[in-house]
Amino acid sequence: MKKNKNTKNWLTKRNREHFFKKAKVHGYRSRSAYKLIEMNNKFKFIKKESLLLDLGSSPGGWSQVASEIIYSGKILAADIKNMEKIKKVNFILNDVNDKDFYLKVENFFNRKIDIVISDMAANTTGNKNLDSYRTGELCLNALDLASKVLNEKGVFLSKIFMGSIFNEIQEKAKKYFKKVIKYKPLSSKSESKEIYIFCKDLSKI
Ligand SMILES: C[S@@+](CC[C@H](N)C(=O)[O-])C[C@H]1O[C@@H](n2cnc3c(N)ncnc32)[C@H](O)[C@@H]1O
Prior knowledge:
The chain has six helices and seven strands; from the N terminus they run ααβαββαβαβαββ. By secondary structure, it is an alpha/beta fold. The structure holds S-adenosylmethionine (SAM).
């Protein structure tokens, strides 16, 4: 039993180091970049002409990945923490829960968009249940925003932590979207409760 646990810890550590080193070599600002690459390989939703909103974008790994694929589209990224410039990515320093944030998104794109991605996570307090709840609240707000800014075929992809608020997120996602899929990327730490929810095709409410 002990041996199995040690082997698992060793593999987890090796996995983490692997993605950390890889991110350094490829110049990505976060190991999270590999989660988006993996999810895009699976769901193939980012296209060269996509209009994409990246919520909780700093330090910028996901925006870097999106900017490598998107040529004729547009990318808007937002975070409460600053983000160093990435070519083809427009950044706004903004709490995405602010009332006027929706208007800023509308003004920037001037039409309904294709993709909202959110890797937002609340600041950790040390209390895992509270942290997962607060990150879940960010996802619920992002879902409301996505339902307003996305076009009919739009995609919403968001980080969540399995926990007490999960059912509420799933219910809201199913209310807004026809397709809702949970996905745990290989590059996400296996011991973490982090998973992603991929939603597609807005329902007419
Ligand atoms: C895990 S990091 C995102 C990493 C990013 N996807 C990348 O690849 O570099 C989570 C981010 O969510 C941001 N965040 C948390 N609450 C937010 C809010 N209310 N509005 C905007 N950003 C927020 C944090 O500041 C943090 O930068």
